[in-house]
């Protein structure tokens, strides 16, 4: 049997400019002695993703210069200011033709979601038709897993900051929810007051 690590890539969306953080790109925020983007890549790797694509946008050059991201494929999203949807599209595009059969998508600004949640959602992978998402007390959240047969449909509906929300809503019956509320906290680092979550 082929290892799931060869079939599922990790996709980290790390392009945001941190508008509500005074324009500080979230990827460059410090957390536990590392940059937030380094921490998030480590979570994906520890959770079971061996191939990782990272979408950069705001201050992409500074992230490339300052962050240690060995073994990652770095993807530039020049349209990052249009919202998360554009980063998701850029990330999916970067995986076309790689032979990957599914992608596990995580967000750089959710450090409360660790390797345990990643591993759980990864375990829901079955084929290129898989659709799965972490759930917190039954509410869908991140990370999410998309089999490759869904990528075109997701890219077509990923606009603004909505990402894959519209596609997942339209395909609710096909989404496997994986409860992760006991091992992760899905808060976002969006505003100054959220910085208390960083260590």
Q: Any idea what the shape is?
A: globular
**Structural class given helices, strands, pairing?**
alpha/beta
Please give the share of residues in helix: 25-40%
Strand content: 15-25%
How many E strands?
Answer: 9
Rg of Cα set: 15 Å
Distance between the termini: 40 Å
**Largest beta-sheet characterization:** 7 strands, mixed
Helices, strands, pairings?
Blueprint: H1 4-7, E1 8-14, E2 30-31, E3 34-35, H2 36-47, E4 52-56, H3 60-66, E5 72-76, H4 84-95, E6 102-107, H5 115-122, E7 131-136, E8 139-147, H6 151-157, H7 165-170, E9 176-179
Parallel strand pairs: 1-4, 1-6, 4-5, 7-9
Antiparallel strand pairs: 2-3, 6-8, 7-8
Helix pairs in contact: 2-5, 4-6
Describe the overall structure.
The protein is α/β, with parallel strands linked by helices. Helices cover 28% and strands 23% of the residues. The protein has seven helices and nine strands, in the order αβββαβαβαβαββααβ. It has helices spanning 4-7, 36-47, 60-66, 84-95, 115-122, 151-157, 165-170; strands spanning 8-14, 30-31, 34-35, 52-56, 72-76, 102-107, 131-136, 139-147, 176-179. The strands form two sheets. The protein has a seven-stranded mixed β-sheet, sandwiched between helices. Strands 2-3 form a two-stranded antiparallel ribbon. Helix 2 packs across helix 5 (115-122) and helix 4 (84-95) packs antiparallel against helix 6. The mean pLDDT is 94.
